[in-house]
Amino acid sequence: MTRIGWRGLEEDNADWRKIEDQALHPAALGRRLDVLSTRASCAFYRHIPLSNPTNSTETQVVTISGWKRLLIWPLGVLVRLWCASIRFDCDEESERAVRNEEHPLAFILWHNRLFLVGEVFRRYRRRDLYALVSASRDGAWLAAFFDIIGIKCVRGSSSYNARESVGLLVNVMRQGCDIGITPDGPRGPVYDFKGGGVIVARRARAAAVLLGIQYGHAKQLRSWDRFYLPRPFSRIRLRCELVTPDELRDRALSLDSLGKRLRAISPDGELPPGKFPPREKTAAAI
User: Fold this and answer.
1) Distance between CA atoms of 266 and 156, rounded to whole angstroms?
2) Pairing of strands 207-215, 105-108
3) Where are the beta strands (DSSP E) in the chain?
């Protein structure tokens, strides 16, 4: 799961409409979107190449199969069992946001909170989740691993051919599937909110969900994002905020404000010890 690296296109936040029109111009997308539009349902687009003759090593889609996939299968199973042991604390407002099944959603979360995304969808969503993964050899291993843990992939690049990658994600949403975006990935800086995911959601006329996770007990790796690995059988607090299409179309909405909202529901530091707080009874339950 990665951000859309616009390489300068995001510098002028006031000119987003021009950016979006350029991003989905037919000359930029070419025949790839025609291929996608003929798909009657969401599929695992692992063989869709992106055309950029100046970066053939980046744009040629590399895949793995056979014994190589078998090598990572035990790791995928281990991660699924690991995530299944985690206890979730999700309040009613957050649950309503994440369970909104009327339309596909663009889920936005920090890169260091990726570990539990597949489990969040298994527990709360019934739609397929797609992520943008590099077309390179490293991306092929990641795409195969994501497939095992329940995340499907659009193969492209967030640094090269970003416009085509955005078009592919928009088509995925228009066919009824969710997408996941990390606004500070794949290389950071950590908690630096970039606007690629917002542009995709706005172009698809869809809502976005800010997905925040706070861990009870977790180890942070020595990576650029201080990636979180929760302790098995620990607890996490899941908080979600729905950003409606009307909010996304509001030109006054800034990336800084969205970043602050996502930081607020994704605090660093461990949860205080103790049991989950009791959930308030709703009127329907009474």
Assistant:
1) 28
2) parallel
3) 87-90, 105-108, 129-134, 152-156, 178-181, 207-215, 218-220, 228-230, 235-243
Q: Which residue has the tokens 């990636």?
A: 227
- Identify the structural domains of the chain with CATH numbers, from first to last: 13-264 (3.40.1130)
CA distance 234 to 213: 13
CB atoms within 10 A of CB 113: 21
Q: Is the pTM of this model over 0.90?
A: no
Distance CA 132, CA 199 (A): 14
Q: Which two tokens stand for residue 208?
A: 């976005």
Convert the pLDDT of each residue in 88-137 to its tens digit: 999 999 999 999 988 999 999 999 999 999 999 999 998 999 999 988 88
Closest CA to 197 of 1, 4, 60: 4
